[in-house]
Each structure stands twice: as structure tokens, then as C-alpha cells.
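Reagents: none. Just compute today. RagB/SusD family nutrient uptake outer membrane protein.
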Amino acid sequence: MKTFIKISLAFIILISLNGCKDFLEEDLKTELAPTNTFTGTYGFEVGSAGLYALTRSEYNTYGEGGAYIHNGACPYEALQAATDIVDVINSDASLMPFANLTLTPSQQFVTTYWNWAYHLISSANEILVYADQNTNWDAPTDKARFQAEARFFRAYAYRTLVYLYGDVPYVETILYDFQLNFTRTPKAEVLEHIVADLQFAAEHLPENPDQVKDGKLTKWAAYHLLSEMYLLQGEYQLAEQAALAVINSGRYELMKNRFGAKQNTAGDVFSDLFIENNQNRQSSGNRESIWVLQFEFNTVGGGTNSDDWTRRAWNPKYQDVLGFVLADTLGGRGLAQIVPMKWWVGTQGTNATGNVAGIFDATDIRNSNYNIKRNWYYNNVNEASLYGKKATITEQTWFTTKSLFPAVTKFFYGRAENLSLTGSYKDRMKFRLAETYLLLAEAYLGQNNPAKAAEAVNVIRARAGASLIDAGAMTMDFLLDERIRELVGEESRRFTLVRTKKLVDRVRMYNNAIKGKIQDYHALWPIPQVIIDANRDAEFPQNPGYGQ
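Predicted 3D structure written out:
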């Protein structure tokens, strides 16, 4: 797959700009024109690889290399801000409107997420149209396979759109004519299309994850996402069935023993999941990963400094403290765009104010120092009076200078040859089996079956060494806490809270900065103003609360 990426990116730019059919009288002559590319299996492999590249660009920041979508700092953090897990303090200007609930229809990421999703949709639609026309395939299953990939990615893009904007235009083919009269398709109808796409993908994508290349989709990724989309529809029994299809497939299992690149060094099985090169099934034996985005270092089709700044966002600015120097073992250079809230991470082992226990059991390995780093030791050998001593986390270092605080280590990444680098080249587990169990628990709660929900959650807690719970403790709030313990930073927290209809309640409970400001309408972002302005031939209403 990766050998096609560079060609595919150029190809996607072309097809994304493919507008009015009559704009030019002459046919496209470039070798990357769809009519020249989509003439056989190899051409569709090129187009398919482009879909994976576009999907990864969801995490793009500044416009280096393929990072042409967002061209700003940390768009992913906009989906963590204004929730119940992080404070955003004196951060990048592109994030503050989201954190403060002052975002407008002209805010940068409001527009770029919209553009990213429709880039992906238009590229998927192009493949679907030409796959229907093509008759030259290497294998009789090729057509359905490429259509399944395209429909998965189209569903994935619409997932983002309905979470962020609600009703959005649904487009399922190439739009040759320039249009100024789009209308907003009701969210419920878009969800029906998403489900149909994922059902097709689940039927036609490969079944055996041991027989696909790293990062390539299987039917189980479609079932995982299908479970989530059924939850968003309120179809809880169907969500249960989709999650169980993955769990009972025999293809995946929670990792319960040390594995991978550093299994013989200090750590635990949970920290092993996030060690570089441990994400892919083929290379590390990780049988928990269902779908992994490929960002490898120094690899054709891999990452650039602008691909994924998650590490920088979560990592403290320890390098600003006298006695510290940048180190790959400390995660590289951090920016602390977001900092964890006390209520869930706790203040134990720090000198921060309050005596906050946090939400972890004492035996929960997800709270070990291998996974949440609370012990920071001065590492600058040129500061002899400090070297080797423990640095103190205080209220000031946590929330003012953002230089030291309990840090989530799953995003640590650094390279000795470039300690000040911006991005992360570590592959990213997009779906893993632990979340499938948590989706299953959510489905059971939706069916008013807390006992079965507790049973699903206990599979996760047992692996973590946490105490098991019973039906009496199994509430939606407990499940949302469990998703923090297991998935903090991996999930788009905004999506989870919107889906469970708990965004406003949880923000009012835990986010002191905006608890008096958040309203029901904040569950959606505004429609980008440029979209409304351009759609002059039909009414295109703005979301409530954001004006017109």
C-alpha cells in the first residue's frame, strides 16, 4: 500500500478539483486522470492508497509534505477541548475558541474539518463511480473489495460530519456541474447511508487480518464502526450484534502478556500497546489492534513532522525547566496544548493543591508510572546540583507554566537524532478491541441491561488489574469514566459525549472554565460561513446558537 502513497496524493488533488465537466473542451491528458488511472486493479490500488493517506490527514497540522488539510496547530485537540478531560490554558490561538466556547462559523478548524471530510467523500465517490464502469480486474473479487474500502471511508467521513455539524449535504456520486444549491440532509437520513455503507464494507472487506498488509481494512473494522453508528442511531440491539461479531470472530484478543519491542524492559502490557512498532499485528504480534493508521518514520508513505502532533499536545514543556534537557525517553519536545484535569488523573505524587484521588484503583496498571508519568527526574548532567533528583509537580507547573504535570505516556515519542521534532512517527491504533468491549457495554446500557454491561467492562478491567464491578455500579457515567481510563487521548472525546448525550452534563460537572457557559446547542459546531455564503441559490441554515 505504501508504495502508492505519493502518487495517490497527487491523484487525490486532481480528482478533488474535478468540477464542471464542460469547463474544458479537451480531455484531461495527465497520466493521473481518472480515465487513465482507473483502468485496472493497479489503478484502483493507487486510488485506494490515496484514501488511506487522506484519512491520515485528519491529524495534519501545518502544511508540510502531505499535510495540506488543516494548516494550523493541533486540530485533533479541538475534539478534546471543552469536554470533561482536559484544560486548555493559554494555548495555541487556533484552539482557544473551542476551549472557551467562543467559536464562530469562520473559525479555522470549523472549516477545515468540513473540507477534510468532503475531500475524503469526493475521492471515495470517484472510486465507486469508476469501479462500476471498469471491467478489467485481476481477480473477480477486486471490484467489491475496492468498493467496500471506498464505502468504508465515505462512512467514516460522514461520521465526523454528523457528529460535528448535524444535518449535512449527502453526496454519493461525482458532481460534474458546479452547484450553488446544496441543502442539508437530515442527520437521521445520513446515518442510514452510513450504516448501509458499513454493512456493504463488512460483507466485502477481507476477513482474515493475517492476510492483509499493515494498516489495511478488514470487515472487522467495519463492524466496529458499525457498532458505534448503531449506538448513535439508538439501535442498541444492532450495536450489540455488531460489537459481538468482532469479539466472537476469533481474530482478535486483548493483549494480556508482555509483548513487542520492549517486552523485556520495565513496563506492563498496557504500556506495551503504545511502544513504537508495537501497533501492527504482523510485526509485533499485537492481536488487539483492529485498524492502525500508518505513520512510520523514514518510510515511503509514512509520516512527516506535520502529520500528528498528539504527543506535543499532551506532553508537558519540561524542557523549559532548569535541570532538564530534551530526551526521547521523556517523549521529545512538548507544547502542553492541553493538560489533564485533576478530577480524573488525581494529584497523588504531586504538590498540586487539593487531595484528589482520581478515578483509578490502586492496582490499575493504566495508572502506573509507565502509563501516567508523575515521577520526573532532572536529566541535565550539566546541572550537577539537580541531576538525578526528582522534580516537583506543583499547581504552577501544572496549570501556569504547563512545564510539569502527570503526563499520559501513550503519546510519548522522540528520536535522538531530532529531539525538537514536531510530529510523531508512531503508528496510531484507530480501533482496538478494548474499545469494542466498551461499545458493547454502551449497547447493553441502552437496552437497560447493566449486568451485561458490567460483564463487558469487566473484561477490560480484568486485563488492567482493576477491581471488577457489578450491575449496581454500572451507569453511563461509570462507562464514560472507564473510557477515560482505557482510551484517554485515543478517542475523540467530543464524539463520545455527543453520542451518549452527556456533553453538557459532564462539562458542567467537571470543566470549571466553561461550566456556566455551555448550552445544549454547543453539542454541534457551526456550519462554516464560507459554505453558507457560497450556497447562494438555496437556503442553507446555520446551526442554532451561531447566528446566520
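Residues 254 and 288 are 5 Å apart (CA to CA).
Action item: order primers for follow-up constructs.
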